[in-house]
């Protein structure tokens, strides 16, 4: 099953809709630098800021990742990297966090 992801410019959205309002995790967002790759992934199962933090933590450990922004409210995770990411590596990181890449 292939995950849907889209190359988009990075936008600064607040972590609305989570149980903690995003207060339990850092901002993690940085403006997209020239030559950066931005991908948006759909992740199933995130319901709160703790979930966002778990997914953010695992994806941040991938090589070339410079920024991760997870939103439980939308189920979207925006990842900025210096090189295109391997989808299987992203899937494995999301699985390790306890969630599912859609």
Q: Your description of this structure?
A:
The structure is a single chain. With 102 residues, the protein is of the alpha+beta class. Helix content is 23%, strand content 25%. Strands 1, 2, 3, 4 and 5 form a five-stranded antiparallel sheet that branches. The longest helix has 12 residues, at 49-60. The chain is globular, with a radius of gyration of 12 Å. It starts with a strand and ends with a strand. The relative contact order is 0.27. Mean pLDDT is 80; it is low at 5-31.
Q: Mean pLDDT, as a whole number?
A: 80
Low-confidence stretches: 5-31
In this structure, how is the largest beta sheet organized? 5 strands, antiparallel
- Rg for CA atoms: 12 Å
**Helical content class:** 10-25%
- Along the chain, the helix and strand elements come as EEHEEHE
**Anisotropy-based shape:** globular
Distance between the termini: 8 Å
Number of helices: 2
| Beta-strand content estimate | 25-35%
Number of strands: 5
User: Which structural class best describes the helix and strand composition?
Assistant: alpha+beta
Short description:
The chain has 2 helices and 5 strands; from the N terminus they run ββαββαβ. It has helices spanning about 50-60, 85-95; strands spanning about 5, 35-45, 65-70, 75-80, 100.
